[in-house]
Amino acid sequence: MTAKLTAVRCGALTTVQDAGRRGHAHLGVPRSGALDAPAMRLANRLLGNHPDAAVLETTLTGCALRPDRAVTAVVGGAPCPVTVDGRPAAWGAPVRVPAGAILDVGTASAGVRSYVAVAGGIAVEPVLGSRSTDLLSGLGPDPLRDGDVVPLGLPARPVALPSAAPWPAPPTELVLPVRPGPRADWFSPAALRTLTSATYRVSPHSNRIGLRTEGPALERASTGELPSEGMVLGAVQVPPDGRPVIFLHDHPTTGGYPVVAVVAEPALAAAAQAVAGTPVRFTPG
Amino acid sequence: MTGSRTVTTRPAGHRALLVELPDAEHTAAFHAELLRRRAAGALPPVEEIVPGARTVLVDGAADPEALARELSGWKVRPGDEDEGDVVEIAVRYDGPDLADVADRWGVAPDDVAALHMSRTYRVAFCGFAPGFGYLTGLPEELHVPRRTTPRTRVPAGAVALAGPYSAVYPRSTPGGWQLIGAMPDPGRLWDTGRERAALLTPGTRVRFVPADGVAAGATG
């Protein structure tokens, strides 16, 4: 018999995430998946799970979970206080949670998204090959609500696991290497200089669809309307207000605003952990 | 859209490129050619091929620059895309914008249905929501603008027009298109329990037929 987890407290937003859905963008299906994929994979490895096993992704205020059987879990990603039935427990390393005890994942002390991996992985039904919640198109399980129960898979046989692992610290300044995007020529030369020289800040309106920024507006050289075209993960799209939006995993697969630049995918994990107000610099790369 | 054209490419980050075509017909032809070559194993591995209105995004390539050099040499000739299955979509033409569209077309409201049903459409690209296809095939004189004020809720199954496109809303969302009718069984558009979740995929041909007394389904 496998275990189940009851979500006792879901915080601001807790979703099921794995490596996401690939190969369906032409149907309008976003990639989705954990925004800080390296954190998800590291948490899974510390449990002997497949690196892409489904985990819970929290947002700023954590969550609390109660398993119906004893389970082993790892809380990683954004640093936060972890308790089991009120007693302090390890962050970033395996924790044993007895049957009926409450694993509390507290408010992030830095960063945005903590990841809760449980031995065996979250075993909700996959949709198009992924268990991820996709907030844009509503695929996968709905965001967790208090009282929801999620099934767990069978834990792997015990393997030799590292007892500690290096977790990157959330960024105090977000440096995003960009290459010119497909529509860089829709912007004035001054706008391109502004993009790579000005400091932007992470907007509080950011979400899993896009990291919005506040800062100087980028001026268009061409005022025409762009016919809809395919959008990549990391695209820096510029809506009419001129403030760059970096497309994260739940971004629409086609769109009609010009893409001035594209952020290298490995930098997006840090973008997922940048709290509102974090300075953002775009650098050539 | 006459004759063959070479294609131009634009870089789209470290793993992707955007291929630009002169019009929707060349885009459809280039997209079909990409799929043919991928099926034949004659294309370097890529993760996503995403057509747009005038572009095709090729994403998840190991070496986008090398791929760009290869694709730039292709000659694309539209015109061979009138083959394959036609999906029939049954429609009740009773949308709230029917009279406005009739005005813009300069016809009686009853004629909107006949004009809309008289064409064969093609899914140029998808987006907005899973299962939402942008259908080309309306002649330019029948293109209508989006509504000035979008509706906060368009019902699932709404058959809609905007610019050069027709579409059917797979689920209830906000939307600014002109609503001319409704598909009684919108659940057909998107069903993840089916092997092919989307009824309408890029390249699919579509005919609209009257909802009353006509069996809906794919025909050869």
Automatic annotation (TrEMBL), chain A:
UniProtKB keywords: ATP-binding, Hydrolase, Nucleotide-binding
Protein name (database record): Putative antagonist of KipI
UniProt GO MF annotations: ATP binding; hydrolase activity
SMART domains: AHS2 (SM00797)
Cited InterPro entries: CT_A_B, Cyclophilin-like_dom_sf, PxpC
Key word DNA repair present: no
Organism phylogeny: Bacteria, Bacillati, Actinomycetota, Actinomycetes, Kitasatosporales
Start and end residues of each Carboxyltransferase domain: 26-285
Source species: Streptomyces ambofaciens (strain ATCC 23877 / 3486 / DSM 40053 / JCM 4204 / NBRC 12836 / NRRL B-2516)
Pfam families assigned: CT_A_B
From TrEMBL, chain B:
Source species, domain of life: Bacteria
InterPro entries named among the record's database cross-references: CT_C_D (IPR003833), Cyclophilin-like_dom_sf (IPR029000), PxpB (IPR010016)
Domain (Carboxyltransferase): residue spans on this chain: 7-200
Record carries keyword Nucleotide-binding: yes
Keyword match Transport: no
Keywords: ATP-binding, Hydrolase, Nucleotide-binding
Protein name, entry field: Carboxyltransferase domain-containing protein
Organism of provenance: Streptomyces ambofaciens (strain ATCC 23877 / 3486 / DSM 40053 / JCM 4204 / NBRC 12836 / NRRL B-2516)
Lineage: Bacteria, Bacillati, Actinomycetota, Actinomycetes, Kitasatosporales
